[in-house]
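To whoever is covering the structure queue this week,

Two jobs came back overnight. Logging them here so there's a record in the thread.

Job A:
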Amino acid sequence: MRFVTRSLVGLYVFLLTLGLLALGVATVRDALDERASEASRGAAPGERVFAVGVAPLEPQEIAPLLTTYGEVRSAVQLELRAAAEGTILELAEGFREGGRVTAGETLFRIDPAEFETELALAETDLANAQAELVDSRIALELAAEDLAAAERQRDLQRRALTRSEDLQSRGVATTADLETSELALSAAEQTLTRLRLDMAEARARIGRGEIAERRATIERDEALRDLENTLSFAPFSGLLADVDAVLGRRVSLNERLGTLIDPTAFEVAFRVSNGEYARLSDDNGVPLPLPIRASLDLGGRSVSVDGMIDRVGALSTGGQSGRLLFASLAPDAGRLLKPGDFLTVEITEPVLRDVALVPASALSAGADLLVLGADDRLEEIRVQVLRRLGDQMIVGDVPFGQDYVVVRLPQLGPGILVRPIRPEPIPPEAARAAAAPALQGG
């Protein structure tokens, strides 16, 4: 019993000691907090300064690059069609898909036997018409001679009648003689009229003969053209596509046998928006002859060709906005490209002068730029965004020579004091050494 009592008393003393110790610790802590609070109330807080990277706004002349996509087309191509009906007897060695032919080379030949027969018949008809025309002209000459003789005969009969009338008036000739002379003159005039009709008929016969000759000549020329159309020649050097011809096949008139493409006259068609077209055209809406570069990705290997904007499409296709532009490519584009290739087109726009190139991270969503003002405090200005080039922006209406904040952080704003960090200038020797390889390569 005594042991329990002593234990309870010891526990009570231990708890009392812990309570007094905790009270002392709390008292010391409150004293320290009160002293720190008094010290903080006695000192004024300092202004926070942010370290920011800055760069100067320098005037530049920049030719922006406009990137779009287009399709390769052939500016010069010819559909090869059969100008005559018949059987294909001959084909050029290169007359196949992707084959190359030269200017003046025979592409294909159609069986000419039928057309040679038609030409022979036409030449025979022409010879017959020419012979008939010769006969008609001879007949006209003979009729003219007969008419001249009849006119002389009429003149003789007229003089004989005059003599008979004179003799009768003197009482020498009788009335019967006078009537005989009148009858002879009438017969001569009747013969003259008949010969004039023969003369007119001879002239008409010549006219009909000339018409028959012209008709026969036309038929002969048409038969000759048909015979010549059995041979097809390449008007220019190029490549063949869509070939559909084999030896021995009978083709119909105007049947398509292939397409001849000029590989030195390729162009690329691409579409731009109305705003972009306004920058690529003059005040009259005519596209400017601006240089372009068209690139094609060949499985990790990129090929590029240069070109020049040539014209704008005549129609605005329904359902599509903007304008369709065409640019002629370099003559050697056919070695690398094919019609139908999908290209990336980079257009060099007209040069922008008195502009600055700044990172996109320096601008706010509202096109505001933070510049370094007096006493290293920030000022906010509104700039004009002209173009976006990747992660950089071309801006205008900026105070050239003044520093701007390269990266606009959320805690930065107008009136904030900053510590500018400027990029270290490149020594002239290092700049010349870096530029030397580029100058040699260019």
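Job B:
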Amino acid sequence: MMLSSELHGKRALPVGLIAQLGALALFLSTIEYMIPKPIPFMRLGLANVPIMLALPLLDPAGFFLLVLMKILGQALVNGTLFSYIFLFSLCGSVSSSLVMFLLYRRLGRFVSYLGISMAGALTSNLVQLLLSRYIMFGPSVWIIAPPFLIMGLVTSIVLGLFVMRFSTQSAWFAGKLLNGSEPDDRYDPAAPGGFSYDRRVLIGLLALPAFLLQQRLPGTLIITVCAVILAVTHGRRFRLLPNLLVIISVTAANLLQKNGIILTEILGFPITLGALELGLKKALTLIGLIYISQFMVSNRPRIPGRLGALISLQLFYFERITESWDRKAQGNLLGRIDTLLFTVEGAEYASEAGTGRGKEPAVGWQWSFVVISWGVLVAGFVL
């Protein structure tokens, strides 16, 4: 079926291909998410591989729809839709995708995938550093800028070379270039998409203002711990090492700014109480937002409308990729990915509306999180 004019004027979009590439982006971003990072928004950029592959396969509308699906899909799967990380991902992905698209369309004869990958990574990194200057680290962000940019450059070179090789050796990719990208008959744009705005979303939205208005470190700590417990009781996994890295990196960056009473000195550099408290508060706020977000999307809420149905198809393909990928399998990585794409393309799509994830935790505990959040905020003003 065709994706109608609401998304692309009067032309049909190859929604099957867009969903497949979007699912591959989710799969790669999930792998990347499991790799500990010293900075929470630091990315290896694995999910940019499908974006680069889409450059010769999709027209502008399809390409940027894929970018949007990548951003939303990452946020839903990783549970960062309502956190700072979503803002970083949104700005970084949009800016880098725009640069890569313009380079390919205007200078495609002279710029290879390697150059496109490097330009996209540089753009994304610069935009995210600018955001972190005002949201997380302050002026000291420029201290982490050199290693951040160097890492982005190295990974972009590796990914660019990989895409160059894949585009010349992949039978799946060659078939798409030869036959063109046709609409997927299995996709029904009239089908209900469904992101039921259930109480989890409402609870999270009610608790967020109290959390963000919290001025005291103990209050932020209490709400963050409750958010972690809430997310874990709803099926999300607590990973200690990434959270410790967030606390260490954000706190260390803020210690570079003198603020308040000097507690001690490390190698002649004064450690001040105000800077320590501010750094810990920022780190805990970031962690708390991630786990609140994970709780809000822990039931994989379904987005309504045609875009929602397309994202549902993307999530379907994502599950097929996850089920089909064998980490212990032998053979060339390029060939394994090629086979995986053919396998996913042949998967039969079936609506999963209404499926649950087991027994629902107590509703009272969910609503108590709102009470605790606002209670801690009020106590902070009174005491």
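Note for Job B: Confidence is low (pLDDT under 50) at residues 1-10, 185-197, 351-358.

Please reply-all if you pick these up so we don't duplicate work.
Q.
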